[in-house]
Amino acid sequence: MHSNHLLLEEPIRMASILEPSKANFFPAMTKIVGTLGPKSRSVEAISACLKAGMSVARFDFSWGDSEYHQETLENLKASIKATKKLCAVMLDTVGAELQVVNKRETPISLKEDAIVTLTPHQGQEASNEVLPINFGGLAKAVKKGDTIFVGQYLFTGSETTSVWLEVDQVNGDDVICVVKNSATLAGSLFTLHASQVHIDMPTLTDKDKEVISTWGVQNKIDFISLSYTRHAEDVREAREFLSKLGDLSQTQIFAKIENVEGLTHFDEILKEADGIILSRGNLGIDLPPEKVFLFQKAAVHKCNMAGKPAVVTRVVDSMTDNLRPTRAEATDVANAVLDGTDAILLGAETLRGLYPVETISTVGKICAEAGKVFNQDLYFKKTVKFVGEPMTHLEAIASSAVRAAIKVKASVIICFTSSGRAARLIAKYRPTMPVLSVVIPRLKTNQLKWSFSGAFEARQSLIVRGLFPMLADPRHPAESNNATNESVLKVALDHGKASGVIKSHDRVVVCQKVGDASVVKIIELED
């Protein structure tokens, strides 16, 4: 991976761009989150998605009930077993999402300059004159001239499947709007987004709490994507709720930034959350188009410096119906990687798109190519400067391990960790080679039974750029004498060799704890 590392700032021989890329065991350092749904929920489809490079499966509870998602999850478990590829589970909450209710699912054609009424009376049938919505306070929140966007759930922003409305007047609980473009809304569920308007709904709704405390607890979910996070308090409340649900106290919370309110409180949200999802679909409506790139670059940079995963959404919308992305989309994916994004989240493209596997494969290839020209040297210097001195003990070890690996052209960094923190810190410095995170299980008890920790920690690194986890044998304690660690190291090296990442005479950097000391060592492999 390191050997063909180019820099865009250096002159590139143009013909070299056309040379085919070498196949890698790890499709790309940047991870891919796939949303599972009608087009991607069979064992065959999920297995193909895992082989193509998906490492986190997202379950979106804005539609579908717990039984439906449970069936999909059982298929995911079968696929993981069949493909021997680890995959984490992300539960996406509904949150303060406004929805148009179309019970009969008949297509609704809206014509430019026509009048349409948004009403909270959900008993009414949806038509081209009336759209019933799931929120009674819209009339109090909007005023004449405000913009409202309505689209098919996971809308693509295409002007034929989504519609812009302008508020003309408020009549009691009803909001009367002028249609700004002709469009046909199809399906049972459309999301509704009022641009730069505060919606007085809880971030974690009663329905979300019910789903998390039943489906979430039953399946020990790894991540929660907290939709419509607007304040740090939203994350604190969610964390407090999870802390009372047994195993879910370990579940990581990814704050989904979807509107100007979340953007305004970004810094305080980042301090509380375990990671950030930049929901560019909704943000693209709240922000002027010329400001979207600026928010993305600033937000990703802040996440990078905090050592927390940044996930970008809505990258290849056109692949929902097409086999190839547009030129702009392909460039957009690459730019997200060059910005420092940890993972790309695919929504409609895998949920109801015609080509879920091809989409994951295409995005993975673009990420891999972009990763080759990522300016690691500049990034490393910026990160070290940002962290400042004196560094914490762990931060110093992590940055030294990455620097050593680059200087000796190591093929991989192996990190022994029990909490996953050390491995995440190494990944924060964006080494050009994969980081093999060997999670050493710890024995714990709740006074009734013994159990091993480690599975959560391993799966949660599946969303971090460049981090590839493996679970060590529980018979080997986390901190022990040298001999035991050596045997775990042998297992890790064998895994690396089997994966094709490590070859004879390669150098490997190992980061481990021996007693109270943290050690970084360089080993050279023999035949």
TrEMBL record:
Uppermost EC category: transferase
EC number: 2.7.1.40
Xref: Gene3D superfamilies: Phosphoenolpyruvate-binding domains, PK beta-barrel domain-like, Pyruvate kinase, C-terminal domain
Reactions catalysed: pyruvate + ATP = phosphoenolpyruvate + ADP + H(+)
Keyword Secreted included in the entry's annotation: no
Ranges of residues in domain Pyruvate kinase C-terminal: 395-515
Annotated Pyruvate kinase barrel domain residues: 30-360
Keywords from the named record: ATP-binding, Glycolysis, Kinase, Magnesium, Metal-binding, Nucleotide-binding, Pyruvate, Transferase
Cofactor(s) recorded in Swiss-Prot or TrEMBL: K(+)
Pathway where this protein functions: Carbohydrate degradation; glycolysis; pyruvate from D-glyceraldehyde 3-phosphate: step 5/5
GO MF annotation terms: kinase activity
Similarity comment: family membership: Belongs to the pyruvate kinase family.
Protein name, UniProt field: Pyruvate kinase
Gene: LOC107002489
